[in-house]
């Protein structure tokens, strides 16, 4: 693997715990892969529009005359999908907001899930078309949610990535980040140790 796509989705900028995790990952990656390249897409600074009826028609309909807004949306969708296809490793920094992913990441998913391009329907069901990728999910939470009914984020991301063909997925958790400095520091240290040990 020599090309990594990094997706940031925190709205907290320099105060973001997930950004701290992913910045550590990037530094580690570049140290271990001297000839590699990293593409960082911050979804809070380069936002993806909310999918509405006009934009949905641009992404999922053929042979229609597009408005300028639709053309921009289609171009963005194509760019995002090209990024997925041209990178070996996909790293997504995902804070938990109100028990699920940030809106900015949900908008991104809406723009990359396109029939005939990132998945297709077959007689045996949908088939993902984004092949040969590994995904690492760096997820931060204020409370403790892993392996509980309140963790809607983990199964949702697995479902989305599996649906488009990415099945090699590893989650790294930093939890209890609102439970005091000791909890925050220990959780981040544990996450960094896991990052140090993963083989990529």
Total helices: the number is 6
| Rg for CA atoms | 17 Å
Principal-axes shape call: globular
Question: What structural category characterises the helix and strand content?
Answer: alpha/beta
**Overall mean pLDDT:** 93
Percent of residues in β-strands: 15-25%
SSE order, one letter for each helix or strand: EHEHHEHEEEHEH
Low-confidence sequence ranges: none
Read across the widest sheet, the strand sequence of neighbours is 2-1-3-6-7
Our measurement of the CA-to-CA distance between the termini, rounded to an integer number of angstroms, reads 7 Å
Q: Which sheet architecture does the biggest sheet show?
A: 5 strands, parallel
The share of residues in helices is 40-55%
How many distinct beta strands? 7
Summarize the structure.
The protein is an alpha/beta fold and 200 residues long.
Provide a descriptive summary of the structure in words.
The relative contact order is 0.16. The protein is α/β, with parallel strands linked by helices. Helix 1 (17-32) packs parallel to helix 6 and helix 2 crosses helix 3 (68-85). Helix 5 (153-163) links the parallel strand 6 and strand 7 (168-174). The N and C termini lie close together (7 Å). It has helices at 17-32, 53-60, 68-85, 103-112, 153-163, 181-197; strands at residues 3-8, 37-42, 89-95, 119-122, 125-128, 134-140, 168-174. The protein is 40% helix and 20% strand. The protein has a 5-stranded parallel β-sheet, with helices on both faces. The chain has a two-stranded antiparallel ribbon with strand order 4-5. The mean pLDDT is 93. The radius of gyration is 17 Å and the shape is globular. The chain has 6 helices and 7 strands, in the order βαβααβαβββαβα.
């Amino acid at each position: 693997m020599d090309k990594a796509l990094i997706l940031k989705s925190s709205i907290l900028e320099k105060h973001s715990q997930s950004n701290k995790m992913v910045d550590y990952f990037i530094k580690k990656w570049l140290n271990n892969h001297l000839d590699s390249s990293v593409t960082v897409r911050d979804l809070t600074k380069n936002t993806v529009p909310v999918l509405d009826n006009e934009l949905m028609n641009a992404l999922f309909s053929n042979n229609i005359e597009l408005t300028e807004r639709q053309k921009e949306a289609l171009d963005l969708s194509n760019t995002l999908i090209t990024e997925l296809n041209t990178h070996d490793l996909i790293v997504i920094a995902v804070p938990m907001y109100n028990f699920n992913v940030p809106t900015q990441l949900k908008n991104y998913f809406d723009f990359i899930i396109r029939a005939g391009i990132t998945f297709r329907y077959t007689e045996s069901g949908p088939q993902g078309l984004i092949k040969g990728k590994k995904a690492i999910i760096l997820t931060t939470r204020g409370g403790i949610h892993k392996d509980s009914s309140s963790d809607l984020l983990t199964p949702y991301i697995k479902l989305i990535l599996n649906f488009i063909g990415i099945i090699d997925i590893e989650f790294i958790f930093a939890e209890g980040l609102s439970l005091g400095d000791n909890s925050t520091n220990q959780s981040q240290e544990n996450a960094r140790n896991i990052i140090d040990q993963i083989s990529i």
